[in-house]
Specification:
By secondary structure, the chain is of the alpha+beta class. It has helices spanning about 10-15, 20-30, 45-60, 115-125, and strands spanning about 5, 35, 40-45, 65-70, 75-80, 85-90, 100, 110. The strands form 2 sheets. A 5-stranded antiparallel sheet has the order 7-6-5-4-8, covered by helices on one side. The protein has a 3-stranded antiparallel sheet with strand order 1-3-2. Helix 3 (about 45-60) packs across helix 4 (about 115-125). The protein is elongated. The termini are far apart. The mean pLDDT is about 85.
């Protein structure tokens, strides 16, 4: 039974977040944990649930500061606008590493819904820019 208990550091590594984020989730009541002395322990099932819900929420809201567009003239590419500029990104796994600067018109671009853009950003390996 104790083998499926994780410290916040272990749980944070699995969830891809900082342990402080998990402490805030515990305080909000969105993550169930048990406190032993000064240490919080989380079950593996609970962290798996937290990760699923977090990914679902990300899919709905997208990635802050990143906007993705399509255009009929470049059907196999995404056009991404973020804090670093406008990028033409091949629509393939790892396409972010093959991006080039986008120099086309922006007026005719079709925006991609934030949730879909977040999923596509993961597919192409988008590296989020720190604010």
């Amino acid at each position: 039974m104790t083998s499926d208990l994780l410290t916040l550091t272990q749980a944070a590594a699995l969830a891809g977040v900082n342990p402080a984020s998990l402490r805030r989730a515990i305080a909000r009541g969105t993550l169930a944990a048990t406190k032993y002395g000064k240490t919080y322990l989380v079950t593996a099932d609970e962290i798996a649930r937290f990760i699923r819900e977090r990914r679902f929420a990300e899919r709905r809201r997208g990635i802050p500061g990143m906007h993705m567009y399509t255009t009929e003239t470049l059907p196999n590419h995404w056009i991404v606008n973020d804090a670093t500029g406008w990028w033409l990104v091949p629509n393939i796994p790892g396409g972010w590493s093959r991006r080039t600067q986008y120099r086309g018109y922006v007026a005719g671009l079709a925006p991609v819904a934030p949730g879909i853009a977040a999923g596509m950003a993961r597919l192409v390996g988008y590296e989020e820019v720190a604010p």
